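queue> pop job 88
queue> type: inverse folding (structure -> sequence)
queue> payload:
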């Protein structure tokens, strides 16, 4: 014998109606990984400020721009970024901003300025900025894999028919 009928017998008519309406109508939507529809977008980074661009890219990779956003499900879209070499930074960051990484060997700390990074691997600048704004863990890594960054104006994702996204 279920507990529901016993509980509703003790309630008044109004409370019973509210109880059943709450059970029927007040359902929280949770996105399922297999039903999430992911679109492809292409963004031109020419002249865009690095941090502002990265925060919008991270938001869209997470899926927070969608009504069906669910924190524990990857609901984000695929994003292709073109012209990473032409991204802008404010102030003196072009000369002053430093990027650090470690080789894993003793004394293996390496550093590079923003200018050096743009000259060597311009895609990496946007990738680092966006990755820092995504969740840390398996879900964040899955979101990060949907970001495709290219230094020039060409990409090899034409088959996905990406839509132009103006940020």
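queue> result:
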């Amino acid at each position: 014998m279920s507990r529901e009928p016993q509980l509703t017998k003790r309630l008044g008519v109004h409370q019973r109606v509210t109880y059943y309406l709450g059970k029927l109508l007040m359902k929280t939507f949770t996105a399922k990984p297999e039903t999430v529809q992911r679109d492809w977008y292409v963004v031109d980074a020419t002249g865009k400020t690095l941090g502002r661009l990265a925060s919008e890219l991270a938001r869209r990779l997470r899926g927070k721009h969608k009504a069906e956003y669910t924190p524990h499900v990857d609901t984000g879209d695929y994003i292709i970024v073109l012209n990473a070499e032409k991204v802008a930074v404010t102030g003196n960051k072009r000369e002053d901003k430093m990027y650090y990484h470690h080789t894993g060997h003793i004394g293996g700390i390496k550093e590079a300025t923003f200018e050096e990074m743009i000259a060597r691997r311009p895609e990496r600048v946007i990738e680092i900025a966006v990755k820092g704004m995504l969740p840390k863990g398996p879900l964040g890594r899955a979101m990060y894999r949907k970001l495709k960054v290219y230094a020039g104006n060409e990409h090899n994702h034409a088959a996905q028919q990406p839509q132009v996204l103006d940020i």
